[in-house]
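Sequence, C-alpha cells quoted for completeness.
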Amino acid sequence: MTDMAIQILCAATIIVEFIIGSAANGFIALVNIMDWVKRRKVSSVDQILTALAISRINMLWSALIITLVSSLHPDLEVAVKMVRLKNNTWIIGNHFSIWLATILSIFYFLKIANFSNHIFLYLKWRLKKVVSVTLLLSLVFLFVNILGMNIHIDVWSGTLQRNFSYSSTSKNYTQFYRFIFLINTMFTLIPFTVSLIIFTLLIFSLWTHLKNMRYNVKGTRNSSTVAHINALQTVVTFLLFYTGFFLTLATQVWASQLLEENLLFFTAVIITFPSVHSCVLILRNSKLRQASLLVLWWLRCQSKEVDSFVP
C-alpha cells in the first residue's frame, strides 16, 4: 500500500473508532443517568462507569481535535499557548480515563476476591472509602503531572526564544516532545502496575477458591466461580487494551520522528482503548447489555415499519 492509502485507512479507522467510542460511552452515561433519575439512587459501580464514560468522551474529542489541529495546521504546533492547551487537555482526559478504569478493577477485585488476610478484609469492608482515597491519590499524580509538564513547557519556550535557527528549533522540538511522552508514560505506568497486581491477585483468589471447592455448597461455589471468571475476563480485556495503549506511548518516547510521520496511525491505536473497551464493558454488564438489546430490538422494529411503508 502507498503512504497515501495508509493515511486514508488510518483516518477512516479514527473516524470509525471515534463514532463507536462516542456512541458506546454516551450510551453508558445515558443509561446510568436515566436509571438514577428513575430510581433516585445509583450504585457505586454505576457511578464509576458513568464517570469513566464521560471522561472517555472527553478524551476522544481531545484526541480528535489535537489530531486535526496537528494535521491541518502544523505551524500551530510550535505556538506555546497551543502546546500548553493541547498537552494539559490530553493529560486530564487521559488521566481520568485510565484511573477510573483502574478504580473499576479495584472495585471488582474487592467485591469478588476472597482472602483471609486482615488488610484485605479491612479494605473490603471499607470499599467506598478505598475508591474515594484512590481517586484523591490519583488527583495528586494529576497535579504533579500537570505541574511538571508546564515547567517543561516554560523551559522549552525559553530555549526556543534563544535559538532562532531552523535546525536548532527542529532538534529542540523533537527533544521537547520526547520528554513529554516520557512523562506521560511514567504516570501511565502507575495505574498499569496497579491493574497488573489486581489481575495477579484475582487469579490467586480464583485458584484458592477452586482448591477449596469441596468444602463449599455447590450453588455457592458455582456462583462465586462465575463471579471470579467474569471479573478476570473484565480485567484481562482492560489489560490487553491497556498494554497496547501503554506500548504506543512508550514507542513515542524513543521514536518521536516516527510519530511525526505516522501521527494518524498512532492516534488510531491510542483511541482504540477508550472506544472498544467501553463496548466490552457494555457486554460484561448485565444492565447495560439488556439496555443495548432493547435498543437494537427497537431499531429493528423501526426499520421494519419503514420498510412496510416503502412501495
About this structure: The chain has a mean pLDDT of 78. The first helix runs from residue 3 to 39. Residues 89 and 128 are 28 Å apart (CA to CA). The chain has eleven helices and no strands.
